[in-house]
Write a structure and sequence with these properties.
- It contains eight helices and twelve strands.
- The strands form five sheets. Strands 1-2-3 form a three-stranded parallel sheet, with helices on one face. A three-stranded antiparallel sheet has the order 4-5-8. Strands 6-7 form a two-stranded antiparallel ribbon.
- The protein is of the alpha/beta class and 289 residues long.
- Helix content is 31%, strand content 18%.
- The chain has a domain at 8-81 and 183-193 and 209-288: 3-Layer(aba) Sandwich (Rossmann fold).
- Strand 2, helix 2 (57-67) and strand 3 (77-78) form a beta-alpha-beta unit.
- It starts with 7 loop residues before the first strand and ends with a strand.
């Protein structure tokens, strides 16, 4: 059991391909924040969607992290080994009346889910499973963006935690694993900001404590869209790792570091780490870096 006062952070990529610059920034932000707080940094591979995944991606991701000097403090966790834990959490939620079956198509439920299947008592086991939200407000103090508040029923809606195809959804798996691994500090991109009230709501339903959250601006490509593997963002390489690292630090609003071997650059970046210097905005164009 870890010391309850110890900061535990994590980087949790999906293995759909190697890391691109945006995902390297995400890894770096979590790594530096955890190391600056003398914490434990974990690596989790979120391999819950086999049709989208690449078999070689986990090894490539780990090699990339190593090449940029980021080493984790425990064996990597693979979500594909945790299905029993997700089933158990889902059973707890269902027994407590927090879920319902839903046969709606994605097209029919764009935007906030209107509660179509809430009272229909479906028995079709091929249905998706949604969490039943309430009109409660979720408040949290984002350590970069400041106070946030969401009305779960009006702004978020009932959300899926198990898909029609039988795969567990991200929201449930991440909450169960963060609790299991005692993650108490999450530093991640603003593209996941709207996931935070969902995860806090699930934590409450499961009687789990919620971690603290900090959301940094995501890097946009030349087309104005978030850098992503789906948009074929180029993988980062260690060919000019010092320049890539310096640019990633700039994206996070950090002071420049001296050009040295990667390990020394990271050591200086850890000493200089300042969460309050990260821009309080949702996105940053790559042309500004």
């Amino acid at each position: 059991m870890r010391n309850v006062n110890n900061i535990v952070g994590r980087f949790a990529p999906s293995p759909t391909g190697p890391l691109h610059f945006g995902s390297l920034v995400a890894a770096l932000a979590s790594f530096l924040d955890t190391r600056a707080n003398q914490g434990t940094w974990l690596l989790r591979i979120e391999d819950l969607d086999p049709p989208r995944e690449s078999e070689s991606a986990p090894a490539k991701i780990m090699k990339q992290l190593h090449s940029f000097g980021m080493d984790w403090d425990a064996p990597p966790m693979f979500q594909s080994t945790r299905l029993d834990a997700y089933s158990e959490a889902l059973a707890r939620l269902s027994e407590a009346g927090h879920t319902f079956l839903c046969t709606c198509t994605r097209k029919a439920t764009r935007g906030v889910y209107p509660g179509t299947c809430r009272d229909k008592q479906h028995t079709d086991q091929a249905s998706a499973i949604r969490v039943l939200t309430t009109a409660t407000s979720i408040h949290f103090d984002d350590q970069i963006l400041g106070p946030r508040a969401y009305n779960m029923e009006q702004e978020i809606g009932d959300f899926i935690i198990k898909r029609k195809d039988g795969l567990f959804a991200y929201q449930l798996a991440v909450v169960v694993d963060d609790h299991f691994q005692q993650v108490n500090r999450i530093v991640r991109g603003s593209d996941l900001l709207d996931s935070t009230p969902r995860q806090i709501f699930l934590n409450r339903c499961l009687n789990y404590p919620s971690p603290s959250f900090a959301h940094f601006p995501v890097v946009l490509g030349d087309d104005g869209q978030k850098l992503s593997k789906q948009a074929h963002a180029a993988p980062v390489t260690s060919e000019d790792s010092a320049t890539v690292l310096a640019t990633a630090l700039k994206a996070l609003g950090q002071r420049p570091v001296d050009r040295n071997p990667i390990g020394k650059m990271l050591d200086q970046a850890i000493r200089q780490w300042a969460l309050d210097q990260i821009p309080r905005q949702l996105t940053i164009p790559n042309r500004d870096l």
